[in-house]
Amino acid sequence: MKALFISLSLLFTCSSIFGQTVITGKISDQKGVGISGANVFIKGTYDGVSSDENGNFRFETTETGNQTVTFQALGFKVQEKETICSGQPMTFQITLSESIQVLTAVTITAGAMEASDVKKAVVLKPVDIVTTSGAMGDITAALLTLPGTSTVGNDGRLFVRGGDASETSIFIDGLQVGNAYGSTATNVPTRNRFSPNLFKGSFFSTGGYSAEYGQALSSALALNTLDMPLRNQGDLSIMSLGGGYTQTLVGKRNALTASGNYYNLAPYQSLISQKFDWEKSPVSWDTEVSLKQKWGKAGFIKAYAHTEGSLMAIWQAVPGEAGRGNRVQINNRYSYGNLSFRQVEKNDWSFYGGLAYSHNRDAVNLNYEPIRQINQVGHAKLVAVKDFSSQLSLKNGVEWYLKAYSEELVDDKLRRNIFDNQLIYFVEADYYFSNKLIFRGGLRNGYSTIAKQYWLDPRASLAYKINDQGQFSIAAGRFHQLPDEKLRVLQNNLKNAEASHYIFNYFIVSNNRTLRAEAFYKTYENLATYSGTDRAPVNISQEGSGYARGADVFYRDKKTFRNTDFWVTYSFINSKRKYSTYKTKVQPSFAPEHNGSVVVKHFISSLKSQLGTSWSWNSGYTFNDPNLSGEMQSKTKAYSDLSFSWSYLPRPNMILHIACSNILGRNNVFGYTYASQPDETGAFSRIPEGQGATRMLFAGLFITLSKDKNANQLNNL
Amino acid sequence: MKKSLLTITLIFAVMVSIFAQENPYHKVMITEISKLDQADSLKKFQQSANAFSRISQLNPKEWQPYYYGALAYIYQGLDGSLSLAKKDEALAKAAELIKKADAISPDNSEIITLEGFKVMAEVSADPASRGQSLSGTVMSNFGKALKIDPENPRAAVLMAQMEFGMAKFFNSGTEKACDLVKKSQVSFAGQNQNALKASLMPSWGKFLADKLSKVCQ
Asked: Where does the UniProt annotation place the signal sequence (chain B) (predicted)?
């Protein structure tokens, strides 16, 4: 036994004398600069070392025979070298090539504006949508402070780069939302139905977007819902316009959120004088249930259901006529359901998709004549993504859309409807040439059963990073969209309108300052044109065309002024189009030439308050004056709105929010409604389309109730 | 019989523990943990992270090498000399290692604390834009860790540090923070640090607790 022990130790000693191999060398990047802190070691052993400041390394190993030396450093691809350790010193000169770092690599920013907490090339944080002064918690209103958009105060929807509101499609977790805005009367602004608190981030594209999105000529807005909430809690809101309660229950692998809200504008409107002639102030309620379930290691399933109802009745004066004018009553019921999933599978495959359905019913009483309109949108989607390497990924997707619309004159029992199925296939590849250069190319194919038309949309974009933070991107693509269902129901065989986008973008984020500048050119073909009026179109054809071109700048700064975050936006849009009832190419009313906004948020620690202000401005809306020759030859005075808000946190779980729009009391006019017949002097009389009230005042108290003492309202500020 | 069984068991246990101490994994871990404890520069944290990466490639079923590797990367992510992108790169690596540790040892109070610490480092890399959205995640991680092990002094002291920040933000008292510091100090005092070290269990954080306790006095 003893002898064995001695011989064994001898053996070990020997091997350490004869087997000691010294390994030295240098690790450099592709430019020849030494990489410090790289890890060099014999695979499968503890023998190894870190490189020094100049990339040099030296270590010894007692291993013998065939071995693998591994070289690895953060941000570089791992390299391995086969070698034979025989006691002879060895030297390695290693050049590591950089690996693609999704976190810091170049991203395509042409046309795109992201709100995200994790990504780099973002213009907004999700929380900004909630806290932008003047937005009053409306997602759309917050986005209207971004470049490429135009505020149309008597509409409230998103207007992007000379396109009308129907040219923007809205998605929740990748699935289309039909009727995302509340139903309203002409010239009474609407809001987005969905609360900004539902979402962890958004992707807003003002053009040149991915092949994943279609049936939108101008813009895509993709909203992503929150994953797992942090804790069980109740959220109570008491507002000047209503109130609501949300309960969140969190399990180990799942979570449930349920909420209910009720809004009634009557008490508020009885206190503050209104310019609109309300017979019944808007009243609405909504309920929501959202379920989240983790699935396997990396998968997620989300279910979301939202249903709401609203009622309003308003009198709208008719120019040249005495009395209250037309009475419009709208009773709306809306439901939206969305079931989505994502899952990561073996061999770098991942899948996502889901089902969504929305049903919108408007019971409209126009001067006591009942009309019933029903819109349905269904969407099913399945996408498979394969990462062939860290440089190349390929996305394949199939989609099915159902778009149905019916309208009925209830008393006359006259009903017409349209029921369209659309099948879509898209494919898109992302290829990183390096961390500095990325190319994305895609194709989107579609077929509509009603239009009996097949279409093909190629899309491409390229981004190049010049140094650490500045980058250029270009994007181009073709986009198809079928005319509004309200036109298609009159003439079922209408084909797609078509747009082409060309975008050039520069983007830089540096030290809490962001600058984004973009130039664009867009053409339109086959736009629907008709005679008659918007409400009763006749002789519909698709001979319209047009263009939009311009440039915009966005600058955001969180650094220059202490505790202050501000952004400034300017957009120039030059757009003309022949469409709807226009006989020639005109500048549309929703595309003011110059648009600007300034948003400021300032935190005052001693007051436990955040003060916010926002100013939105444009150079005026075009309108058609029948007293003059030509079309759309007139323009309103400039639009301007200065809003102010104050958020106060008396306790960590409580926030008091007060906001006022248009504090300067400017009388904004968005256009004019003209009489259909000239009066006795031969002139057409008119009524301005203005604001519902000079100012909008809002006060709300938001309280978070939770057993967890760490719950606070900080993330709502 | 009972007695002899006990003796055998004892001998076996002693042997196992001797064997355990003698095995190269244990030895190298003890050395590297103590190096990490004493590390005070970016270079040393890099060396430490590399060392634990070498250990984990040989011992992929142990959670501790991933844990300490992640810790070494979090310290790099807190290094003021690095750019935001470099900090995020280190913290992304830490996240990857924490995920591996968690897969081996789920619901481990120490690993959940480390996750919270990592998010805390992400916040401190860019507090202006991350503070509001991520502070809640940090606190919920420490809360979860303390729920599993109320005696986890690291969860308590890191939570105390967050509470100090919160108190400063809300302009309120530091009682809550100081209570947590005290709780953490009591836990540290009640634990046998040497035994923890010998079993490769986390034992860091006392220095921070002592430092914060001075603010409370």
From this structure: 1-20
